[in-house]
Amino acid sequence: MRGLMILGVILILAGLVALVFNVIPFHHQEEVAKIGPIHATTDKQENFVIPPYAAIIAIVAGGALVFAGRRRV
After folding, report:
1. Distance CA 25, CA 59 (A)
2. Which residues pair with 70 in a beta bridge?
3. Residue 6 bridge partners (DSSP)
4. Cα separation, 1 vs 15, whole angstroms
5. Cβ–Cβ under 8 Å, residues 49 and 25
6. What distance in Å separates the CA atoms of residue 59 and residue 64, rounded to the nearest whole number?
7. DSSP 1
8. Residue ranges in the chain assigned as alpha helix (H)
9. What is the pTM for the complete model shown?
10. Looking at residue 49, what is its pLDDT?
11. Could you give phi then psi for residue 31, rounded to 5 degrees?
12. 3-state DSSP call for residue 6?
C-alpha cells in the first residue's frame, strides 16, 4: 500500500528532525494584571523538549510502516 509507505517516510523524517532539533520554543502572552479596563500582559517564551526516545520510536515505527507497505504490494 502506498499510504503506509508515505506515512512511514513522514514518520522517519519527523523522527530525524526531532533528533536534530530536540527543543521547540513557543511564545504566549500571559495576563499579569487586570485593573478595570486596563490589562497588563507579558510575553513568555517556553521550550517544549522532545525526548530522544520519542524520536527513535518514530523512526523505528516509520521503518516498520515502510517495510509493511512494501510487503503488501
Report:
1. 22
2. none
3. none
4. 22
5. no
6. 9
7. -
8. 2-20, 52-72
9. 0.71
10. 92
11. -80, 125
12. helix
